[in-house]
Amino acid sequence: MSTTTVDQRTAPGGAPAVSTEQQSLLQASGTLVWRNLLHIRRMPEMLLDVTIQPVMFVLLFAYVFGGSINVPDGFDYKEFLLPGIMVQTMVFSSFVVAIGLTADLEKGIVDRLRSLPISRQAVLVGRSISSLLHSSIGIVVMAITGLLIGWRIREGALAAAAAFALLLAFGFAMIWVGIWVGSTFRSVEAVQGFMFTIMFPLTFLANTFAPTSEMPAWLRAMAEWNPVSALTQACRELWGNGLAAPDSAHLPLQYPVLFTIGWVIVFTAVFAPMAVVAYRRRARD
Question: Which domain range does residue 205 map to?
Answer without folding.
Answer: 24-284
